[in-house]
Amino acid sequence: MALYLISAWALVLLYCAVIGAWTGGPTAPALGVGTLMLGAIVLQAANFGQARRPLRPANAADPAAVAAGLCEAVSAPAALVAAGLVRHANRAFLALLEFGGRRDEVIGLPISNLVHPLDQGRLGVLLSAGADCEGAGTPAVLRMLKADGSSVKVQACASQLDGTPAASLLQLGLDALPAASATATDISSVVLQQLDLVVVSVDSSGAMTYANRAWERLAGDPQVDVRGRVFRAYLHPEDRDPVESDFSRLINGRLDSLAREARLISADGSVHWMDLRAHPYVLGDGEVIGVLATLHEITPRKKAEESATAGRGRPTTLLANFPGMVYRARNDADWTMDFVSDGSLELTGFEPFELVKNARTSYAQLIHPEDREFVRQQVESNLALRKPFGMTYRIVDAQGKESWVWEQGCGVFSSTGEVLALEGFITGVRMRASADQQALRRLGIQPGTGPADEPHLRQALSYVLHHSAAARYPCALFWIDIDDFERARDQLGTRGADQAVALLADRIDGAQAPGTTVAKAALEARQRLGPGHCEFADE
Fold first, then answer.
1. Which range has the worst mean pLDDT, 133-137, 328-332, 414-418, 485-489?
2. What is the DSSP string of 229-297?
């Protein structure tokens, strides 16, 4: 500004000199003196205004740039944090966390993503104290996460910057106390030494720091002190990297617990299958110093599974070619299938997966409604006697087509007599059944042969008595005497007499209940057995 005024003043003086030379007389000196006085007044005013104006730094208008410059000028690892996000990080900070020149990956990242999950609470307290100017500069131990997922322990302090109230300068120091090592005194060794369960502790470097006596028996070398030995050296080569990776995730807080199978090689070279369970080894102050693991041997179970798998091919091929459906079911209201062979598609129109666990329909729904009670009675009565069951009944397939099937099965019992499952097979049969035959079957009468025989009656009677005693419900035995039945059979023939029995059954239909049975007894009498009711009919 001063240079501009001086230049303008010189031009005015030159102008006055030229004008004075033209006009002559006292005009020229007067113009020169007036110009000098005017210039002096303007310069004085300019200097006064400059003195009144305060000096400001050139970058005072950008507080964020000032804060970033301060962060960069700090020799220790430092980052500028605002609203929980990293706004700037110096080279030492990037080098510490092994981000190198990848500054863009850190800028804008939540600072919590760079701190171990177990230290998030300490980070929050540290930043809050720095923002409130209370406790600013007081260090706290944090574990920072590197780019590869590993952690490094540092001492951190946060302080608020002048002119940027919403930002804090987080500074890190590498002089944190070294991690405490786990020793046998950290654990109740007296108790653990008595356990058959293997208990080991592994530090963050993968070295074993504790193992109880069960480990010595398993490893087969009780003379060797395992402390300081690398845990992965005892593992099967195929399990070393996966287990080590899982342990690293536990230590870094990315995994809360671990449950997996692994193979361990003992001193004599034998391989032991182990059920490995592990958790982070956390000290009282929340610091994770390693992994605490238990190992339970499951070698016998794995050998049994391998044997079963090896022999599974032959039965599978046999079942696939079996003309029918092999099953394993639960003894419930739906006959819930736990296993169904491939023959179910041809027999019922449903794929095996559609029947297993009642995924699409239950097998009980496939049984013809008129035959469901009959099937239930046959199965339950034979289960009560612990005998196999066999019967013929109708099913309705996926297309709604009715067909006859023959089922043969048995119960699978526990040591206490509880029915665990039903196993058997079902195959299709061709049967011409008239309405009379269906009515006779429903009542336990075999078409063409007359009423059920005495063994059938005894079987049904045993079933009813057993369940009546177990469930404490009443049961009744009815004797129905048909007058002149012998003469009627001579006149009508065996088939006609059986049809007469069927008509009689229809007349006493109101007295029927689930579990009823009609059988031919001595002296050509008819006996009717039924639970839970006391009806009587006579002809």
1. 133-137
2. SBGGGGB-HHHHHHHHHHHHHHHTTS-S-EEEEEEEE-TTS-EEEEEEEEEEEE-TTS-EEEEEEEEEE
Highest mean pLDDT of the ranges 109-123, 312-326, 459-473, 513-527: 109-123
Summarize pLDDT for 14-24 with one digit per residue, the tens.
666 666 666 65
Residue 70 tokens, joined = 């301060």
Residues near 452 by Cβ (< 8 Å), separated by ≥ 6? 444, 445, 446, 517, 518, 519, 520
Q: 356, 358, 394: which is closest to 373 by C-alpha?
A: 394
Which DSSP string corresponds to 26-83?
A: THHHHHHHHHHHHHHHHHHHHHHHHHHSPP--TTTT-HHHHHHHHHHH-SS-EEEEET
How far from 185 is each of 191, 205, 210, 226, 279, CA to CA, in Å?
Answer: 12, 20, 9, 15, 19
Name the CATH topology of 444-539: Alpha-Beta Plaits (3.30.70)
Structure-block tokens of residue 357: 């666990």
Q: Which of 130, 147, 148 is nearest to 139 (CA)?
A: 130
| Structural domain spans, the chain | 70-173, 184-303, 316-431, 444-539
Question: For 75-115, what is each residue's pLDDT tens digit?
Answer: 888 898 888 888 888 888 888 888 877 888 888 889 888 88
**C-alpha to C-alpha distance for 172 and 165, rounded to whole angstroms:** 21
* Contact criterion met (CB below 8 Å) for 518 and 460: no
- The CATH code for residues 316-431 is 3.30.450.20
